[in-house]
Amino acid sequence: MRVDLFDFDLPPENIALRPASPRDSARLLLVPGEGDFADLSVRDLPSLLRAGDVLVFNDTRVIPAQLEGMRGQARIGATLHKRLGLRQWQAFLRNAKRVRDGERIDFGAGVTAIAGPRDDDGGVTLSFEGEEPVEVLLERAGRMPLPPYIASKRATDERDRTDYQTMFAREDGAVAAPTAALHFTPELMAALAERGITTETLTLHVGAGTFLPVKADDTDDHRMHAEWGRIEAATADRLNAARAAGGRLIAVGTTSLRLLESAAGEDGMIRAFADETRIFITPGYRFRAVDGLMTNFHLPKSTLFMLVSALMGTERMRAAYDHAIGSGYRFYSYGDSSLLLP
Question: Which PANTHER family does the UniProt record give (predicted)?
């Protein structure tokens, strides 16, 4: 399938640089399988769902995974994106040509790492020196890894340490937030519970590969980056039971959806899962586990716009995005939301 089928023009002014405040005041575009779109607010979500429906959240926690350092006189930027071992992380490097296998990078604040060879994903293995846990080193020397389309327009600041973290975050390991869940507040959760809508959590550690553009001309030639995820057996059992009772499973974010689909068999049953996934969902994919998706608005020609096009149909999503752009919706990680119900 041609990648340019998923291209569209987005005015720069539609890109959100800060989240809505309070979080649940963001706009929400309801996209049903057919009929008119509806311009609503995230606070309207309880009225759009039914008792017995289940919202599935990703409880990964974003770590301050961006580092700035020096290799000799060369300035090096590093974005960690996958843990390889106790003191080893796979990283994308800026100015990588200035770093050779075995050379030391000094990230300041007493944080140093030895660079390893290039890998098949275009990254470099960094082996951190010393005895302190890497998470402690990152808290001291790292910055929150804002997406390039935000970081290129303003500096990361202290506010991003809370803004770019969901209320569900508890499992360290992500280098990008599961941004659909940024819209939730305790007040919204209480309103959902009052209506009989339940929630479950899973863990998918989102990697920096989520920001990488699809460089191939055809989707068949694109290689997804691996991300590690886990669904507990008890969680899978509750999700299957809810669906058997007539409830809908609504993934909050593409990360939750991708993990649910990775864990589902041909029979649609979700099973316990603890592994890496490279699932790449494009139009023609048969969904097994989810009945709907709450998600932000995604980049042109991105794997995530391909995913929502697979769920709703490419023409339907192009029409929804045209409506969103024309109506002034805010796009990307800090932007507004949509509820897709095929």
Answer: S-ADENOSYLMETHIONINE:TRNA RIBOSYLTRANSFERASE-ISOMERASE
